[in-house]
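Anyone up for a design puzzle?
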């Protein structure tokens, strides 16, 4: 037999072993009104579970969002859409038109987005299972379990309860919608209409968050590993989609590169963190994410993770060996368990943009697992589709859903107030300075200024003497009418690390104690610096507004 004949025989054999597309089975057993009732119940469940966070305040990076800047918020819509995530900003603009800065509506929109994505997850999993010829009732059950777990899993809390985490939700709903459109089990030819719709959804996802640029890899993997096509056949039959996707993807990658080039919190300019150190650390962080997906306790909004400066530091080598072992096993059994393999590949592809070689200041963040969790759920669904669903198994699934729901409700309570949030963060990461600074700010906002002084007496000097904490300590002293202590704290903060916000805060304290000349010097110093943080912009805006009011009064006289 010739070499070419052997190749053709091998390819034909692989196609026979691969799952063949099947027609969608009838859903006549489930009437349309039942789906409406289920949707109503699911929406109420989502609002109940995240109810404690609905009235929660703005937190952390929320203060850096456009709507929190009075100057920016007054700009026309075109200014909101001028950045790298215009669709995300559009959602914030709509919220701002609805309620200005009432956090309730922002949280409610997040919950609606999350519920919509969970519904799309149900449709997606149902289509994947029918492609693999899973019996209809079992497919409905497995897809229902997956979508419910996606909805109530406590690992999703950060993306849903955190207003600044909405980027994951907006990009996520577009990514899953694109997969739903593309993954029709009975599709034989890719029409221009389907290709155009998938391309549109892909562009919307990338314009919501840059990490969605990897979606074409998942689409191609679906054709190769679930539909059983060769890479060449997949590219040829999907030419209407893949070539435009390649162009859009290259534009997206270029945009991401330009963004990373000027960012100090993500990219190759993050201070004190090389790309290979970040990669070594992520070998461990991936296992943290898997553990949180399987055993979701000890959650933390600000993980304190040691950087692996070398390949062997802090167990990074073992982390990589574990990942390689899982990848090898998945590849070995990819034909016996195609959905599990596709799920692990989807998990890896979706997580790679934030957990590989591009450094990000925060080494781990739970919201990054929002969509990758769906990939891990495919592994579970593969197992459920092969198992006997006896009474014990059913009770186990119900118990798991109830337990996840209870954990999500408890976790949502942490997001109900800034004091509760930062108290929990400090308890989870007691050696990390950032949590103490934000807890001090939360106490100042709650007028619990004496508590800040109490914190200062308990924390290590290396944390107490950071400029961020000294600034909050100065605000606490001023709140507690200890003006000289406030002056001393702000002077130390400015001396350690001068910034726009700290200089303006010091100037304000100087004026309150009658040191007008020193206040003017501090203001001049502030105006010579470049505002970089939300705190800087807020105090600069306050100072500008005060100056305008003073000029108005002078003109009036």
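Challenge accepted. My sequence:
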């Amino acid at each position: 037999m010739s070499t070419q004949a052997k190749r053709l025989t091998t390819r034909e054999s692989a196609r026979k072993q691969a799952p063949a597309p099947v027609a969608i089975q009838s859903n006549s057993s489930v009437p349309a009104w039942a789906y409406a009732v289920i949707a109503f119940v699911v929406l109420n469940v989502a609002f109940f579970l995240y109810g404690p966070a609905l009235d929660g305040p703005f937190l952390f990076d929320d203060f850096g969002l456009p709507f929190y800047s009075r100057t920016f918020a007054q700009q026309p819509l075109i200014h909101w859409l001028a950045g790298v995530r215009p669709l995300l900003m559009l959602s914030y603009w709509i919220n701002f038109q609805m309620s200005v800065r009432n956090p309730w509506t922002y949280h409610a929109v997040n919950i609606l987005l999350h519920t919509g994505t969970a519904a799309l997850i149900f449709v997606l999993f149902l289509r994947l299972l029918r492609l693999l010829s899973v019996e209809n009732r079992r497919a409905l059950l497995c897809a229902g379990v997956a979508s419910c777990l996606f909805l109530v899993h406590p690992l999703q809390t950060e993306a849903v309860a955190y207003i600044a985490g909405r980027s994951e939700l907006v990009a996520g709903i577009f990514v899953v919608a694109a997969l739903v459109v593309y993954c029709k089990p009975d599709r034989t030819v890719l029409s221009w209409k389907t290709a155009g719709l998938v391309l549109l959804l892909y562009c919307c996802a990338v314009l919501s968050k840059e990490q969605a640029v990897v979606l074409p890899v998942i689409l191609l993997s679906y054709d190769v590993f679930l539909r059983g096509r060769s890479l060449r056949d997949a590219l040829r039959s999907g030419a209407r989609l893949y070539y435009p996707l390649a162009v859009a993807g290259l534009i997206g990658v270029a945009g991401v590169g330009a963004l990373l080039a000027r960012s100090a919190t993500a990219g190759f300019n993050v201070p004190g963190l090389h790309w290979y150190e970040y990669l070594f650390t992520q070998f461990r962080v991936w296992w943290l994410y898997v553990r949180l997906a399987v055993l979701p306790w000890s959650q933390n909004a600000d993980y304190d993770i040691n950087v692996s400066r070398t390949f062997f530091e802090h167990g990074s080598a073992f982390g990589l060996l574990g990942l390689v072992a899982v990848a090898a096993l998945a590849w070995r059994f990819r034909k016996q368990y195609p959905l599990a393999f596709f799920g692990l590949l989807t998990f890896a592809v979706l997580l790679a943009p934030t957990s590989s070689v591009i450094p990000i200041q925060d080494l781990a963040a739970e919201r990054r697992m929002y969509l990758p969790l769906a990939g891990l759920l495919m592994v579970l669904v593969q197992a459920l589709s092969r198992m006997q669903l006896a009474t014990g198994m059913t009770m186990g699934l119900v118990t798991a859903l109830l337990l996840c729901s209870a954990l999500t409700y408890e976790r949502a309570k942490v997001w109900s107030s800034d004091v509760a949030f930062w108290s929990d963060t400090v308890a989870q990461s007691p050696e990390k300075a950032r949590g103490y600074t934000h807890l001090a700010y939360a106490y100042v906002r709650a007028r619990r200024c004496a508590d800040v002084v109490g914190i200062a007496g308990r924390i290590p000097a290396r944390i107490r003497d950071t400029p961020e904490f000294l600034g909050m300590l100065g605000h606490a002293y001023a709140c507690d009418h200890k003006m000289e202590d406030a002056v001393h704290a702000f002077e130390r903060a400015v001396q350690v690390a001068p910034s726009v916000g700290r200089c303006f805060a010091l100037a304000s304290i100087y004026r309150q104690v009658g040191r007008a000349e020193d206040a003017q010097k501090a203001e001049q110093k502030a105006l010579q610096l470049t505002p970089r943080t939300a705190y800087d912009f807020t105090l600069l805006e306050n100072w500008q507004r005060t100056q305008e009011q003073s000029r108005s009064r002078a003109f009036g006289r």
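A detail worth pointing out: The radius of gyration is 27 Å.
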